[in-house]
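Database export, one record per block. Field names are fixed; values are copied verbatim from the stored entry.
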Amino acid sequence: MVERGARTLSPPDDWPVHPDPILALHRMGTFDWDLDTGLCSLDAMAHRIFDITPEEYAGHPESLGSRFPSGEGQRLDALVARAMKDGSEHYGTYVRLRLRDGSLRWAHTQGSIRRDESGRPRRIIGIVRDATEELDDSAGRAQRQALDAARREQTNVVQATTAALAHARTVQDVIDVVKDSHGLALLGSTSLVLGLVEADRIRLVAEGPEGTSVPGTRVTRIDEPYPMSEAVRTLRPRFIESADEFAACYPVLWPHITGLDITSAAYLPLIAQARPVGGMGLLYSGRHGFSQDERNVLVALGSSIAQSLQRAMLYEQEKDLAQSLQQAMLPRTIPSAPGADVAVRYRSGYAGGSLGRDIGGDWYDLIPLPGGRVGAVIGDVQGHDTHAAAVMGQLRIVLRAYAAEGHTPATVMARASTFLHELDTDRFATCLYAEADLSTGVVQMVRAGHIDPLVRLGDGSCRRVAVDGGLPLGLSAEFGSLEYPVCAMELDPGHTLVLYTDGLVEVPGADLDDGMRALAASVAAGPEDVRHLADQLIEMAEKRGGDDDVALLVLRRRTLTERQPVGRFQQHVAPGDPEALTRARHMIRATVRSWGARERSDEIELVADELITNALLHTEGAAIVTLRVLSGSDRRLRVEVEDSSSALPRRREPGEQGVSGRGLLLVDRLTDMWGVEARGGGKCLWGEFVVPESA
């Protein structure tokens, strides 16, 4: 049904419709080129596309020569000639046309080559159409694709930089990432500057390339007329889009950077948690202005750098806090030990790169004791935090106090375990305490769940010292076991004792015994000097890495250069061993005579024997006898016998037939002075004899 008023269309007589009107509707013209005569007919649309009137067109293709820019006509002729020569049936191409007003237009032409029976080209019929809008759209797509590619490249730079910053722990790590030539350089910047905010100033910390910073801008105030200062002050990025704008807005800075050929710049405030931590400037050559996408990318980059900088600064602050706290808990100085060379070292777990307030409870200590003895301590409190360090500090102090009170090594360890158990903490600790008599070389060791020490012998070999151990400190009291076996060994002159924490030998995924063997090999191959040896062992731990702390104490007994009378002698006498008592008497007699006290050697031996026997009969533990020469107005020799009983002896008057009760009477008669002292969990009976120099 036809709508009222609509004109009725009747089909033409030569139905189907001739294609020319349809082609014209699509802005396509036709041509018919007779190759024998050289004539080429164009329809009306073809005339409009070539912008030529029928009167101007002479019927030959050469008449269109003025419509082709330089080189376009020759290119089209070469294309058609090649198609006719190689037997092609079709050709097609885009060409540029110059209109009568001088403007350019894109056209697309395609032709069909008709040949005779012999294959010779006789005729070309085809179409030509206006392709300006088509190619404009294509160019637009290409431009958009180029912009998308550039945006992706910039985004990739931001992502790559952000990924690299995720591994940056220190401020210097962040600076290295920012200066990486494969990073920000991909954004096209000629140079960069990076500054950190310190109070009301900006301190320049990075520049690239080197030497591109402006003299006098190493440290600037935030209120100075510089673009970075403005960005930090206002918390807004400052984009400078031309050299003229740079020169007009920052006349103080511009004369110093004209040699860099800067045409634009972007200064970004580095903001973290709503406050500026620094600023960054990117300077460009040969570039004018910034699109909104480019600005967004740069702002995102600045945000990522700011977050990394803040994280790095917090890391360094916490690292300084951790190291300061750790050092405060460790002894400030190590006392000298006559007769030995001592070196101590501590390596923080921060050296392994751990994050957070990750400080450990590792510690060492050297405790001077009466009579030329020295106590060496190595220990490790469970955990890696400030609480572990605090517990370590308290434990170190009480261990030192118990040892200084004169307790035996086993008692020192037992009391320390009780202290830690009663402390309001859920931490336990491993510890090894070694009490060394440097005059005799006797070393008594007790171990509370700690790693065995090493000893390097005079021939350079190194072996592990097996020490029977008890439970870690803090657990022994909980499980009702406060017994710590004492291991005695002799440290000869030139021998070295190495105490350490597990961070020196433990490697995740590796066997502990392998680590012990590797450490023993390193000690054996290391230098004799204890300081150099300690440095080498810590350097080995540094190279291996790891997050655990390392505490190290190296003690080497000095080699005696000449035989001199020793002013102190100590002997341990075990209970139930008659031979031990006999050996002790012989050693006492020989020692006293070697010290020039031959006239009183029998008296001294008798008193020492009486005190040792009394200790063995009335206590359950061993007796420790010590002989010392005391200097003063008169030369005296002192005999001390220690036991583990706190009960004081009583002097009794024996009956006529009594065989006991005469010990203290004998001591009182033979000595010039005697007494009893409390020594930690036990006591010490002592007697002194005046021994003239001429004796």
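Remark 1: The radius of gyration is 49 Å.
Remark 2: Residues 1-17, 351-357, 561-565 have pLDDT under 50 and may be disordered.
End of record.
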